[in-house]
């Protein structure tokens, strides 16, 4: 019975005529922006994560893993860019489609996992600074990181059991797109919503509420520092909701209501816009968890100060060389010679 249902679903999907215009207009702009901005930003983030690991800080392990997941997805963006520019026609083999699709989806949930690790580590450090020290070690961070990667790879292996390249109504080979969604995708979507988004969101919210409560009661913390912590916490929650919230809500909506091509056509643009929002996570991660730290700020301040000093010295040298070549300078240089000329004439 399940095989018959699956065949019917595939036949309906083959007849779905969906307008992919959003892929030719908005998607290329987002992919190019994220690639150009996210690649150098994540490389710098990886460097600062390495410095933290060198300093025996367990946060460096989480930051490096988070950055590696972002870089993997960024390296797959050229393939997705070519895919959308060719009107959603996958010209490579199915294995590469599975790899790129896995990098797309695993970036979301590996990023969510390590964001939760970072916020829980901060929560334990601020709320319980002298307890749970065994959970804030380099060894514990490596074990947790291995668990997150293993869990997501097992989820990918389950998805790999199904074919991810299929033909649409225009005979284009589409990658990781089924309209309407197939029966096996329902359970995966519910798992992604509850385990991959809802539970981490409440964990994130609980941790940061605890941090804010302790910071508010602290009398030794400077007011400027408190404002900085509050902004960082609120920005993290907002970016988490903006990047991942719409996509996961639409996952549940599709699983509940998408049974025909009519609904798939209506929700296509909104769903893919929410999927593009998750891509901005690759830019938001290094900005929040690397460039917002005090050490990194001082590093860029020193580097900018050095550049300004170099430009100032270059400007002074240019002005001095310009002054040496001005007519007034030439006149002053000629003045002694002109004063000597009458004496020479008299002698003659």
From TrEMBL:
Superkingdom of origin organism: Eukaryota
GO cellular component terms listed in the entry, alphabetical order: plasma membrane
Protein's UniProt keywords contain Aminoacyl-tRNA synthetase: no
Gene3D superfamilies noted in UniProt: Rhodopsin 7-helix transmembrane proteins
PROSITE patterns: G_PROTEIN_RECEP_F1_1 (PS00237), G_PROTEIN_RECEP_F1_2 (PS50262)
GO terms, biological process: adenylate cyclase-activating G protein-coupled receptor signaling pathway; cellular response to acidic pH; insulin secretion; monocyte differentiation; negative regulation of monocyte differentiation; osteoclast development; phospholipase C-activating G protein-coupled receptor signaling pathway; positive regulation of insulin secretion involved in cellular response to glucose stimulus
Topology with respect to the bilayer: Multi-pass membrane protein
Coiled coil: none
Name by which UniProt lists this protein: G protein-coupled receptor 68
Source organism of this protein record: Sphenodon punctatus
Taxonomic lineage of the native organism: Eukaryota, Metazoa, Chordata, Craniata, Vertebrata
Primary gene name: GPR68
């Amino acid at each position: 019975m399940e095989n018959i249902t699956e065949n019917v679903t595939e036949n309906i999907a083959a007849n779905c005529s969906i307008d992919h215009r959003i892929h030719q207009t908005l998607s290329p702009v987002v992919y190019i922006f994220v690639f150009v901005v996210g690649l150098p930003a994540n490389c710098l983030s990886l460097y600062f994560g390495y410095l933290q690991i060198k300093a025996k800080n367990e946060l460096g392990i989480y930051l490096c893993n988070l950055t590696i997941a972002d870089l993997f997805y960024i390296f797959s963006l050229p393939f997705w860019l070519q895919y959308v520019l060719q009107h959603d026609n996958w010209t490579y083999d199915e294995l590469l489609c599975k790899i790129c699709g896995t990098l797309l989806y695993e970036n979301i949930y590996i990023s969510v996992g390590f964001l939760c690790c970072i916020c829980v580590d901060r929560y334990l450090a601020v709320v319980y600074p002298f307890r749970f020290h065994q959970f804030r070690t380099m060894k514990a961070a490596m074990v947790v990181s291995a668990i997150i990667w293993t869990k997501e790879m097992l989820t990918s292996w389950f998805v790999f059991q199904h074919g991810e390249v299929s033909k649409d109504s225009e005979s284009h080979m589409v990658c990781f797109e089924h309209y309407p969604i197939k029966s096996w995708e329902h359970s995966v979507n519910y798992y992604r919503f509850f385990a991959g988004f809802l539970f981490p969101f409440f964990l994130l919210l609980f941790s940061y509420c605890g941090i804010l409560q302790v910071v508010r009661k602290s009398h030794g913390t400077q007011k400027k520092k408190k404002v900085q912590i509050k902004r960082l916490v609120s920005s993290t929650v907002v970016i988490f909701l903006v990047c991942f919230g719409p996509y996961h809500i639409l996952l549940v909506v599709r699983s509940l209501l998408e049974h025909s091509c009519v609904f798939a056509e209506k929700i296509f643009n909104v769903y893919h816009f929410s999927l593009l929002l998750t891509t901005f996570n690759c830019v938001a991660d290094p900005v929040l968890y690397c460039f917002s730290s005090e050490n990194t700020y001082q590093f860029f301040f020193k580097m900018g100060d050095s550049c300004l000093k170099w430009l100032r010295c270059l400007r002074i040298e240019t002005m001095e060389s310009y002054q040496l070549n001005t007519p007034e300078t030439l006149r002053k240089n000629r003045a002694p010679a002109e004063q000597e000329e009458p004496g020479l004439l008299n002698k003659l």
